[in-house]
Design goal:
Number of helices of chain A: 0
Structural class of chain B: mainly beta
Number of strands of chain B: 11
Strand content of chain B: over 45%
Strand content of chain A: over 45%
Shape of chain B: globular
Oligomer: heterodimer
Order of helices and strands of chain B: EEEEEEEEEEE
Radius of gyration of chain A: 15 Å
Number of helices of chain B: 0
Number of strands of chain A: 13
Shape of chain A: globular
Chain lengths: 122, 111
């Protein structure tokens, strides 16, 4: 079946411009995650969605970053007034959420990643 | 907050040598996941460990979850050039949907 789809694959823009990144998760996956990965670095957590709500926005670097998810499916990550330090690969992942069981009634499941958007700020 | 430390950051090996990467958590985990990211690619899920002391094998890869559920390891026997990439562990606390990723170990295999 179709995997996680992200667009655009590459984005080059001038400092100060706004950018919008899109993520289309695997159908039926209620959990959606955004990460940022700088060259040769690990994964920096940005935000997590369960359905359309974002119970954890703690990773957003500043108020220039925002994200939304509609219809429990597509998500967009918006960066306003981009800065050069925003240059990175932005990865989206989706997963199922297992409900039921002990001792934890809810648990995370394997994440399926998209190919990412490589963002370059000039 | 929860921290997951992963070592080493880089590992160079000759093809045919073994390789191990280690993850240590500051808190007890409910599960730990392992991912592989090839150069230029995205992370791909390898396995999830849930039980204390669990050991799972995938061909030449052996995954372990510590008895205290605070550490884990990935061991590759007789590395091949196809094993090149960065291996990440991701640990989750009970009831949390958000795993904490280690910084990854980049494996370089010299033919």
């Amino acid at each position: 079946g179709a995997g996680v789809s992200q667009s655009p694959s590459n984005k080059v823009t001038e400092k100060g411009k706004d950018v919008e990144l899109r993520c289309d998760p695997i159908s039926g996956h209620t959990a959606l995650y955004w990460y940022r990965q700088s060259l040769g670095q690990g994964l920096e957590f940005l935000i997590y969605f369960q359905g359309n709500s974002a119970p954890d926005k703690s990773g957003l670097p500043s108020d220039r970053f925002s994200a939304e998810r509609t219809g429990g499916s597509v998500s967009t990550l918006t960066i306003q007034r981009t800065q050069q330090e925003d240059s990175a690969v932005y990865l989206c992942a989706s997963s199922l959420v297992r409900q039921g069981g002990t001792p934890y009634p809810y648990s995370n499941q394997p994440q399926h990643f998209g190919d990412g958007t490589r963002l370059s700020i000039l | 907050g929860q921290q997951v430390m992963q070592i080493p950051q880089y590992q160079h090996v000759q093809e045919g040598e073994d390789f191990t990467t280690y993850c240590n958590s500051s808190t007890t985990l409910s599960n730990i996941q392992w991912y592989k990211q090839r150069p230029g690619g995205h992370p791909v899920f390898l396995i999830q460990l849930v039980k204390s002391g669990e050991v799972k094998k995938q061909k030449r890869l052996t995954f372990q979850f510590g008895e205290a559920k605070k550490n884990s390891s990935l061991h590759i026997t007789a590395t091949q050039t196809t094993d090149v990439g960065t291996y990440f562990c991701a640990g989750s606390r009970g009831g949390s949907y958000i795993p904490t990723f280690g910084r990854g170990t980049s494996l370089i295999v010299h033919p």
